[in-house]
Amino acid sequence: MDPAEVEFLAENQMVSIVPNFNFERIYLISGDIGPFRAGLPVQVPIWMATNLRQRQKCRIIAPDWMDTERLEQVKEEESQSRYFTKMPSEHYMVEGHMLLGVAAEDIPHADEIRTILKDIWDMRMSKLRSSVDAFIKTGGSHAKLDHLTAMEINSIRPLLPHALDELYKLQKVVR
Amino acid sequence: MEIHVSNVGTSKTTVLTGHKAPILGVALDPKDKYVASSSCDGTVRVWTIDDTQTVHSWNCVPVCNAFLAAKCLGRPSWQPKTGHYLAVPHGKEIRIYERETWNKVLSFSHDQVKQDFSISAYSPCGNYLAGCTSGGDICVWNVNLHTCVMSTRHDRGYRICGLAWNPGGNGEIAYCDVMGQLGTIEDCIPSASQDNSSVTQEKTMTVDDMIHLNPIDDDDDDDNENVISLDKIKAELSQPSFFGDNDKLSHAVADDDDDVESKISGVARIAPVCDLQPPFQPSSTPVHLQHRFMVWNSVGIVRCYSTEDENSVDVEFHDTSLHHALHINNFFKHTMATLTDEVLVLACEIQDEAPSKVVCVLLNSWDGSKEWSVDLPEGEEALAIAAGKGWLAVATDTRNLRLFTVAGTQREVVSLPGPVVCVAGHRNRLLTVFHNGMGLPGDQSLGFAVFSLGSGQLQVLTAFQPLSMTPKSTLKWAGFSDEGTPFTLDSAGIIRMFSRKSFWLPLCDTQAHCKGKSDHYFVLGISEKCQNVRCVLCKGSYYPPTTPRPAVAEISLKLPMCEATTEKSVMEERFWRLQLACSTTGDMCKMGLDSFNDKDALDRSIKETVIKLFALACRSGFEYRAVEICDLMPSHHVVQLAMKYASKLGKMNLADKVAEVATRKVDEREQGFQNDQVDNIYTLRYASDMESRFLPSRSMSLEESSSTYGTKVNHLLENATNASTESESLLLAATKQKKCEAQTEIKPLMSLGQKRLNPFKKSVARVESSRGLANLDALYAQQKSDKNKCNSILEQPPPPQKTKIKQTTLSALKPADSPAVRTTAKKLPTFFEWYEKEKDALAEEFPDLSASELSRQGMKRFKGSIQSDTQVPVTNSSAESQTPVPETKKRKSEEESGLHEENPPKKTITSSSSKLMAFAFKKS
User: Where would I find the GINS subunit domain in this sequence (chain A) (predicted)?
Assistant: First the structure.
């Protein structure tokens, strides 16, 4: 999957918004949404939230985890642990990117959050790279990684299986 | 756990270690030899500073694990100057220990003190000892006379965590409680002041000597009793009969005691002034804040920024389609605001010479003038404001409640019985809360009244009554739910609802939803339909900050049932809560503000719950209870269901009993829904009000309003009396309607329809006259939702869609004479039945006629065949008019007959009589 596809999947995550209009419940294939009551929070998918936000029809409420303290804690854990830790959201990077991109002013400390998210991402990517490196070097046949998010898996997926294939071919030739 | 004793001069620090738990209090010996300390480990110790050793230790403090958890601090106190005695709180008394020997010499207690003493404090002069308890009591004793000089109680009963005498020796005590409040008590020493103090001084020696001489006091344990007996003796001595006693000492004591007592009683006579809570605006944050919410309700948010360089008011609407956001410069320094979908009202207090002013910003005016303002009379100050549909109210410090229309016309001025606390508005209701005199100690006494401001007439819906509150609480919020029911929130976090049956009931404990003790919910609004409270969680405070923008939370309403977690209680709670919701929704439906789908859904869930309750009772073997539950069931269908369930379980005995209930229910239902009569007082009250109001209102020129009055009276009479007297009410309504007609000859069509109490027509009237709607919703007309479902069907206007269709076709057919047409339409089936039968015969008879001519011919025949019927002329004329479109007629007749089937037989009788009546009237 390319990043756009992952993003598409992530857009189905729910987020709270405060609409500034009143509207009936809408019935979608994926489930019912609403009713929208002006001034009162309602859960909608991110794709709808971003769309409404772009039209100035709502205010996005940051998810629980999108909070500097909480993220600092996650970052701390991530840096302490050798393994991958569980992220507060399956699509933390995409969600963060989308919500901060469209509604930075709705989310308190948006810039800090962005920085921390980037830090966490970098940390995890470097961990991933180093573990791939170790995996290939030891010549192991399988490896297990927990708590990888979709985006992270897909960042390594185009390369790793292909590289392993190549390696396998080479090994076969050598033998 | 260390105690550091620092010498201020040499800055040398001695560390005392030994306590095994956090230290609760220390007291330094005035002679700098000892330190007394209390600790969570349960001990009070005396240390020597020089060799840092524990000299003596008492186990007298309740053991706990942390300072925060300690209820009783056990804080000791040295006698000032000499340090001769050490006072240590010990259970329900304070014990005095002698220096060096650490023997108990005395103990002080008070009869009314039920909690343990927590802190002791010697007065600077050393003659008095103050003690306070974990329950907020503060007592002062005269050490020398062993008498209690004063005892008081914290007016909220909060735990006291600090106590200090005024070093000036004027008998003032300062204390602070665990809620962070600091208070002082003056004149703790009975102004035994100068003249007395010399006596006391003298006696210090004698009493002290006496203590020393008294051998009993040197004992350790059982002296407690002895002290009491000593006190008793003294009390006896102090009785007047002993005044003649020659014993000098006792006489002196008695005399002194008497003196003290009289002074105490003098103090006590000054009744405790309970602090009346100041007026407030519901859903606003305190005025002293720089950034504050002036109001946050279901329409929008009004914020006020009053910094030094800026003073402005920001208005934001939740629904931006209602109005764009406003930014107003706050020149007048407004402190109060209220917002509805029509107006923004701002009011300011009196500010140096400038009178109190009310400014009203119109949100949807069409004449160009966006706002108006009015100055209150000199010296009168606005304290609270509220607005509703078409009106606004200002409560002032002269206890006036001034009413205005939204466009600025002055209306009634009402005198409130007490200082206002808050006012709230919703549509045409106004809730006022005011102080209603002195409450019980610690309590406020608040009263409230609900007004109705419909159609230019102000009237009280509920008499001025006391407001129910949690003990020792203040009002934090008051207002209406979205459905128009009055609600309050007090500082204990309890949300109460003023039910349709005119009593208050607790409906939610917001504090139970809070995680922390100091967290509170700031209520914005309540929805009975969704059964929840819209509020903002304020961590560690009562009020939310403006930035960052607080998130709205919705917490569900919940009746405070016993054993709330058990399955039974959960269902019972749900059942009664739904009953409440159902009665509210029922009213809303009648006013046309809510759809019947909601009510049906509620009805269904009530039935579901009650069946579950029944099943639970069956399963747990409480058959008596199960039968009882059957009585609660809304209809006999549910009871029959319950019966089936019981027989399926094999409980035949139970099933029989349930069957009895079922038959009783059916009987009751047939007997004509007598529960209408025990309906709430609103209906009856209001009905009578309406009747009396109706007559004067004849002079009103608005034909619309008068015709809606007619409808209303109809409606009310229907409610107040019951189905059996319906025809009477119809007559009444008809005559009333006639009066209206006499006044206003416009729109005979509509009034005709109303007079006949045609359900279709009624709903049309509602739709057409929005003013009538506003009137109607003032009715607290209500019925028990259960049992009389059938009756409600009678009164319910059918779904508006259907009506509309019919109306259009009818008017298309014959707009001028639609009532008559309708009558015919209802009678038509007879003709059609006849026509269907005879059609073939007719066709044979007149083979050359077209279909329409054939039907006309048929009509003639039909006319002849039902000559005796009184309705003939009507049938005739209208039938002829309708013949060109037999198709529509046919369809309509089918519809009509379908409707007839829906209606119970009683309805048909009344409707036919009303039809007759309509006809008679038309002729006249």
Answer: 65-165
Question: Angle formed by the axes of helices B905-923 and B748-755, to 10°?
Answer: 140
Residue-level pLDDT at B352: 81
Of the candidates B318, B551, B554, the beta carbon closest to that of A38 is on B318
**Structure-block tokens of residue B804:** 């509309």
Judged by DSSP in three states, A11 sits in: coil
Identify the pLDDT of residue B914.
Answer: 57
Which residues lie below 8 Å from residue B845, measured CB to CB, with a gap of 6+?
A: none
What confidence score (pLDDT) does residue B317 get?
92
Q: For chain A, which residues lie within 8 Å of any Cβ of chain B, measuring from their own Cβ? A: 16, 18, 20-22, 38-41, 59, 61, 108
Q: Which of A130, A164, A166 lies closest to A145 in space, CA to CA?
A: A130
For chain A, say whether B548 makes contact (Cβ under 8 Å): yes
| The pLDDT of residue B184 | 84
**Tokens coding B206:** 């004698």
Q: Mapping DSSP to helix (H, G, I), strand (E, B) and coil, where does residue B546 land?
A: coil
Residues of B in contact with A34 (CB under 8 A): none
Q: How far is A114 from chain B (nearest CA, A)?
A: 18
Check if B552 contacts A (Cβ < 8 Å).
yes
Each domain of chain A, given as residue ranges in start order, spans: 3-174
Whole-number pLDDT of residue B448: 93
User: Average pLDDT over chain A, rounded to whole?
Assistant: 91
What pLDDT, on a 0 to 100 scale, did the predictor assign at position B765?
42
Q: Identify the architecture of domain A3-174 in CATH.
A: Up-down Bundle (1.20)
SS (H, E, C) B548-614: CCCCEEEEECCCCCCCCCCHHHHHHHHHHHHHHHHHHHHHHHHHCCCCHHHHHHHHHHHHHHHHHHH
| pTM for this predicted structure | 0.56
Q: Which residues of B touch A38 (CB under 8 A)?
A: 317-320, 322
- C-alpha to C-alpha distance for B229 and B239, rounded to whole angstroms: 15
The DSSP annotation for B60-73 comes to -S---SSTTT-S--
Q: What are phi and psi of B688, to 5 degrees?
A: -65, -40
pLDDT at B43: 86
> How many Å apart are CA B194 and CA B197, to the nearest integer?
5
Torsion angle in degrees (nearest 10) through CA of B849, B852, B857, B859: 160
On whether ipTM exceeds 0.85, the answer is no
> If DSSP codes are grouped into helix, strand and coil, which group holds residue B694?
helix
> What would the two tokens of residue B813 be?
């057919």
B318 vs chain A: nearest CA distance in angstroms?
Answer: 5
| Interacting residues of A42 by C-beta distance below 8 A, sequence separation 6+ | A16, A17, A18, A19, A33, A34, A35, A36
The set of residues, in sequence order, having a beta carbon less than 8 Å from that of B797 and lying 6+ positions away, is: B592, B759, B760, B762, B763, B766, B803
Q: By CA distance, what is B300's nearest residue in A?
A: A39
Question: Considering Cα of B557, then B562, then B567, then B573, what sign does the dihedral take?
Answer: negative
Query: Of chain B residues 554-593, which have a CB less than 8 A from chain A?
Result: 554
pLDDT tens digits for A36-55? 998 899 999 999 999 999 99
Structural tokens at position B614: 């029944």
The pLDDT assigned to A85 comes to 92
Q: How many CB atoms lie within 10 A of CB B758?
A: 21
Q: What residues of chain B lie within 8 A of the CB of A20, using their CB? A: 317-320
Task: Report whether B47 contacts B30 (CB < 8 A).
Answer: no
CB B417 within 8 A of CB B434: yes
Predicted local confidence at residue B170, as pLDDT: 79
- Residue A119's pLDDT is what? 94
Task: From chain A, pick out residues whose CB is under 8 angstroms from the CB of B320.
Answer: 20-21, 38
Question: pLDDT below 70 — which residues of chain B?
Answer: 190-274, 456, 672-836, 847-851, 866-924
Look at residue A167 in the predicted model and tell me its pLDDT. Answer: 87
